[in-house]
Amino acid sequence: MSAYEDLMRFEHDTQALAQVAGRLGWDQETMMPRGAADQRGEEMAAIEGVLHARRIDPRMGDWLAQIDDATLDQVGQAQMRHIRKTYARTMKIPADLATKLARVTSRAQGLWAQARADEDVAAFLPVLEEVVALKREEGKALANGGDVYDAMVDDYEPEMTAAELAAMFDAMRPRLVALRAAVLAAEPPRALSGHFPSEMQMELTRKLAVTFGYDMRHGRVDKAVHPFSSGSGHDVRITTRTNELDPFNCFYSTIHEVGHGCYEQNIDDAYLLTPLGGGVSMGVHESQSRIYENQLGRSRAFTGWLYGQMRDSFGDFGIDSEDEFYRTVNRVHDGYIRTEADEVQYNLHIMLRFDLERALMAGDLQVADLEAAWNDRFSADFGYAVDRPSNGCLQDVHWSVGLFGYFPTYSLGNVYAGCLHEALRKAVPDLDDQLARGETGGATAWLRDNVQRHGGLFRPAEVIERASGRVPGPEPLLTYLEAKFAALYGV
Amino acid sequence: MSAYEDLMRFEHDTQALAQVAGRLGWDQETMMPRGAADQRGEEMAAIEGVLHARRIDPRMGDWLAQIDDATLDQVGQAQMRHIRKTYARTMKIPADLATKLARVTSRAQGLWAQARADEDVAAFLPVLEEVVALKREEGKALANGGDVYDAMVDDYEPEMTAAELAAMFDAMRPRLVALRAAVLAAEPPRALSGHFPSEMQMELTRKLAVTFGYDMRHGRVDKAVHPFSSGSGHDVRITTRTNELDPFNCFYSTIHEVGHGCYEQNIDDAYLLTPLGGGVSMGVHESQSRIYENQLGRSRAFTGWLYGQMRDSFGDFGIDSEDEFYRTVNRVHDGYIRTEADEVQYNLHIMLRFDLERALMAGDLQVADLEAAWNDRFSADFGYAVDRPSNGCLQDVHWSVGLFGYFPTYSLGNVYAGCLHEALRKAVPDLDDQLARGETGGATAWLRDNVQRHGGLFRPAEVIERASGRVPGPEPLLTYLEAKFAALYGV
Fold first, then answer.
1. Residue span of the signal peptide, if any (chains A, B) (predicted)?
2. What pLDDT was estimated at residue A30?
3. B40 inside 8 A of chain A by CB
């Protein structure tokens, strides 16, 4: 066998073991008995140890030295790009730094959850200092003299830079601020009223998942505290949650996760359990969840169909027409919490985090000053003051886990979704007629064929450019948002 | 660190990974999407590969050579006994034989399931021939010139021999045959009538699980095609099934699996994720499931309480008194299927399998003659002919998986349960008063303290002897069965 074949056999088992670790993660959030947490920690550590040992296995270095990528076909070259990148990254991080980071972030998550519950920023800051210091050390090891924050972004969005992200945000910011101000000055839509039993929400949410092309033969929908998608290939599971006063939380979390899940389910079977067998980047992943959730799921056409479904399930809930329902689904409202933000304001929440975490990593902002910096920026951007830490700098888990450079990929996903949506409208001219009948097949087939099936074959920006026919940028998203919300609010 | 400490650290991770593999097995039978089977096969193979590599890791041999067991305390010596035994077993099996066995038994299970569905013995025999040949080869490698079947029994019941089992069965056979004949000649009890909704069965079955001491903080009860218990320590899950015409199937499967599950949950926490942290043998495991299910769960006292619970849940179901209910629960009836057999006849089903599989392994019975041998023996033992293969030699999965030497441990469990029950009655004189109130705490605490908490600390027969105060033998079981069924049937 050639070195490439040996390497791909080895990678197959590594990928399979990574799937196993993912399955344990799913189990932990959905099925695991509460008292099993400590033992599960040991089990996870054991399998992570196996994965790490494989990533630094001496044979990896030998194979990589022997293989001449130029002799491989397009798929082989793409596989090698992923493998070389992961290997190089792993080898750059000293083993004791990786161990320290794992230990500190594990502790930090617990402290963060407690601090958020107690509204006690001071209880979280010491461990956050440790996390920031270790992440900066890691960033320096990865950056090889380059920009530390760039190196972190690259973990989630290969080849994206902080400078490009900053330029993107600069283009978005004034137009989103103006749109927000106009919309919030207008008459707000009516809110839902009534009671929406959890089991009936789950029934309709499973129907919505299937409506959006999620394959139940290769997946399942369960409840969890936080919605997520887990797994690749033939076993891709999603979760959602229910609030009996707010069924949109359940339905739109589901549609969002179905976007992630379909991406993983629809990757070409030839890439199963290979480095190409997962979504190519966080930004492209988020583009799928966002276009399912927003451009499709919150469209006038689709919400018209959903209104009928909800009337069938729940009877009268205080909304008298499809148009009124469409306005309610797309209600723009004040709020502190990123995950509850509407399409108009969501990216403003991200810009705040992007600027703060970039400053933390550059050493321009100290952890001790984080809360004040957050609160000042929030007041400046949103016009009202943060009332408590759980609505401010303690709201997100990310920093406690060491996820610096991750937040901007959410906005990148929105921007990519804007580009894809523009192209999709051209490719499927009767899209609204289809959506109005609850048919998403035209849209999801286009996304499958142009984005999802490729898995990791192309570079992130390349995937979007090939599918949308344009260099990715915020213009299509902004145009879409301005048109949609101007019409909705008559501004 | 000492070699013993190094070894125990290594074993800790091996045990944790084995738990992960077990969790995947549970998931496969309960939660896994149907279309994920192929991918799961790859995932399981990858983790089994990791486990195998650890079992033959060269460091294992070094540590074992360095450690002088005599310098260790009682627990350390017991750990070493398990580790040395597993290591010696692993090293005796040539790698290519292990690989072949894994491949052939995996294929055989599929062919068996299909053959059973098609009632087509001929379709199964060729692959069974392969399994038998490979198992005999494995047995010879393990036996080192000794008895092949003994070597197989030892895998499931350490230090038990076929000769001892044969002597045990010889003592049981005439008395069970006589008891069976007398009981079947008497008036049969009334059967249940009515419809028992699945969800209500599951509700009551979870109550029964908790009643028998199963800890839901470290476990859960789900539905699966076949009832089983899975996992050790703080994450021990059981399954059951429902038949809306026969709630006893659900309830007594649950109580049986709760016996297995409590054994695993109640092992001393000091042994968690070590070789002592699981049940010590199949026979001792089965003694726990059987005593929970039969001597406790099917007692007059407990069924009196259960009758009230079922009346509360299901209303009238055609049984008018506790006494009549007790007779119905303990109905002795003709039947082909081992897993549906009553206490009187169950061991006769095992003896049939024991003699046939022993002859197969000795080369005294050919696979081609298996069906005829089964059917002849069944007619002779039960007095009526097997009507179709799924009621005969195709009914059990065991041989397709390569489980030869496993069947007798079911009867051994019954025999052990008889010994433990005799001692338990002396230790807890008011046991029936407790059971009649639905309280099993007196019995389960005694079993926990005298059997379960020890995990793998003592040898199997030693556990039973320490707990029951007698050398294990069938007399207490037979005395119990004769007294119980003579009274029940007035014979």
1. none
2. 96
3. yes
